[in-house]
Design goal:
The protein is an alpha+beta fold. The protein has three helices and three strands. Strands 1-3-2 form a three-stranded antiparallel β-sheet. The model has no long low-confidence stretch (mean pLDDT about 90).
Length: about 70
């Protein structure tokens, strides 16, 4: 279940997965590999900074286009 009280400028794990077009497991792998950092929330319901998710999405799209 997604948290209803989230700070502005942050995304839940579900929202992050939707933006990146990957699964929740994919988001966990990005964190494990150091490509994405948690910026709040709880261990069970982490939040990610919108700027970090957008930067990662841009990087992934550029790599796909190349």
């Amino acid at each position: 279940m997604e948290s209803q009280m989230i700070r502005p400028g942050h995304l839940t794990a579900h929202q992050t997965a939707r933006v990146l077009g990957i699964s929740l497991g994919g988001v966990r792998q990005l964190v494990r590999r150091g490509q994405l950092e948690r910026s709040g929330g709880t261990p069970r319901q982490p939040w990610y900074a919108v700027a970090d998710v957008q930067a990662l999405d841009t990087k992934r799209r550029a790599r796909e286009a190349a």
